[in-house]
Prior knowledge:
The complex is a heterodimer of chains A (about 250) and B (about 575). Chain A is an all-alpha fold and about 250 residues long. Chain A contains 14 helices and no strands. The longest helix of chain A has 21 residues, at about 115-135. Chain B is mainly beta and about 575 residues long. Chain B has nine helices and 39 strands. Chain B is globular, with a radius of gyration of 23 Å. The interface of A and B includes residues 112, 121, 122 and 154 of A.
Amino acid sequence: MMKNFLSCICAMVLSISLPGGSTAASDADYQQAMRALTTNDYSSALRYLESAMTQDPDNLKYASEYRQAAIRSKDFDRSVAFFEKLAASRPQSANIHLNFGFAYVDKIPTAGSITQVILANKALNEFSRAVELDPNWINYYTRGASYLFWPKIFNRAPLGVADLEKALKIQSTGPRRSYYVKVYVSLGDGYWKTDQLDKALEIWRLGLKQFPGNQQLKFRLEHKGAELQDTIESSFDPNKRVDTDLRELWIAS
Amino acid sequence: MDSFVKLKACLGIVLLCIFNHAGSAQSTRPAMRFEEVGAKAGVRVQHHTRSFPGRTGDVLRMFTSGGAAVAVGDYDNDGFDDIFVTDSEAGKPNHLFHNNGDFTFTDVAVKAGVAGGNDPLSIVSDALWFDYDNDGKPDLLIARFGTPILYHNEGNGKFKDVTASSGLNKFGNTIAVIAFDYDNDGYLDLLFGNYFKPVNLLDLKDPRVLPNDLDNATNGGGVTLWHNTGKGTFQEVTEKAGLGKITGWTLDIGHGDLNNDGLQDFYIACDYGTDHVFLNNGDGTFREVTEKATGWDTKKGMNADIADYDNDGWLDIYVTNITDEYMKECNMLWHNNGDGTFTDVSRETGTCDTGWGWAAKFADLDNDGWLDLFVVNGLRSAGPESYVPLILPVITTPGLDITDPNNWPPIGNRSWSGYQKKRLFHNLGNGAFKEISAEAGVDNQLDGRGIGVADFDNDGRLDLVQTNANQPLLLYHNVTAHAGNWIELKLTGVKSNRDAIGARVTLQTSSGTQIREVDGGNGYAGQSMRRIHFGLGSATKIDRLEIRWPSGHVESVTVPINRISTVEEGRGIVSR
């Protein structure tokens, strides 16, 4: 009974995470945008993608492509403003809140150190809203990972660990996806950040068993002390761009 | 053994010899060593930050927690550099430590008439020796959150307050001041760096005085430039010189000839937002070149020291920012590319992380011919709790007016980036620095602010004064055992300003070429000795020593090594 319930949840999660529900019109806009991107015509691409998202606001693919185009054209404020408007018009859409949060994250490396904190906090609020609306794998993973970026002094890593443990639980009930490896890496980092090195090693080992050859996991298991610390801290450097491209969700095995 | 094997063996021996030689060169490089002698030397005085009344007093005190400054100068021309140290609390005296010549000092501030300045409506924040009237006697400027005080050196151990007649009557919340002759008319001008906008923090009508943005603040005090008329007075020329548009929270200014055109340029380090680079047009005006030179930044610039750390003949700039567990700004070591652009090489050189940085000074502390770098840091060392988590709601609450101190929680006994170890970076001469503060004996954890570098015992090894906010002064005596050879030059301008500020000296030995400029107070809250110091390493002969005076006159001189020499413009070596 329980197993069935979890399978249902998992199927639901996948159906929400994957792009879908696109209309012919929105898809046509999306195709126009993709064509514009091939010639680096970001202005047109962003306009077409905004049109596509307005017609199909829940579509993760449109949103992800839009943000990636905005990153390339450095239109961070436009992206934030667009998602803000979209979220206001569709406040119950978890996918919009998720991407709204990512729009803030995308801007962080370009901002000053204090603005980075403000943006990270705004992103976290949107990720929390996404979890409230739809407690699925991507939302738990995203919020959990985002908590880990906060300096230790703010004591948010334990919250990140809790979210990532939930994400792990969700992914352990369905078919294996290549992107699930991210949870093993991040959860281990979360344990490391909360001074639970044994648990960190255990989850990284478990992850490597599931995803043999993963370089991030291998590196973490092969190094310790200052080298491990440097690697982990470097992966949470707010001045480095975080990969927020979601396409793995629909192209991964 | 065939010839190929022989060749390999020979090559191996040659390589081994090369590596062994390199290794021995490294191991024989003299290690630096300092002894803290503040108490023994009689300079162990406590600085006090200004306290403010009321609920917001706590916050204002924190935002004004500078003011611990040092200015080194030989006010009585006895050949030994003296030390002026500021206090900031109401009624607390400044200190003028006369150098007795035996590494002890006597506080003569009251007798000399320079102890005052911390009155109920003014806060002493910085100090500067400069000979504004070219009479050969260093005068003293006291910068304040208030109007400055200009003391004329009367030459008899006493100073006379000439502020009223000097024209320096404008209120400003000045935190930094440098003297340089920007128009090369032979008289030293003054550039003030102002932190808050010009409102009296001790008599606030409107409490909203804090930065309006913590990355891009536009409500700071900017800078003010005062032209020395040569008649004992100064005239404000900020707008005329093209500096009126700066609205940043200036914490420091460093000057130097950044583009090797013979004119003095400057770098402004600003808290809460971008720094600025200005080049001198040579007609009494400056042009801002920040965008091309360094780009705009959002960091918390605290310090600007200027020197040629890599001996390539171009002046570089070191700026401290905030790097801590919760903020990863990284300092900036702006390498001068010689084409109007600078590249930040702080990460590559290992000088990026110095905690909550304040003053930083380049100095060749082991006389090996390469400039080392001493950096002080730490905001507030108090109780075990941190103030940082309390700031988060202030920063992240939408619409909260952060300019109002009432919206900031009291800090109480909390620490904020406190107990940070000072950093001493040994220049390895290969583009990298090695942090050696512990082995050198300077890794104290006080809340450092200013640094004064000087050779207080005239032994050719540079000593260090470190001021600390609300904490005692430290004096580090350089006792490095195997320091290299050296020369020191006291330059006296004739056509140029008498202090020779802005003079560039180029030294060539078998080891290479070095440059130095006489600076008028570069570096946060600290003026170093005016004498030029060169470390020569093992070189015993100077191939070329050339002085380019601010007037444009260029002369070559011959000086003995391991001696202090006095050079007068146009006359070469003269007796002191």
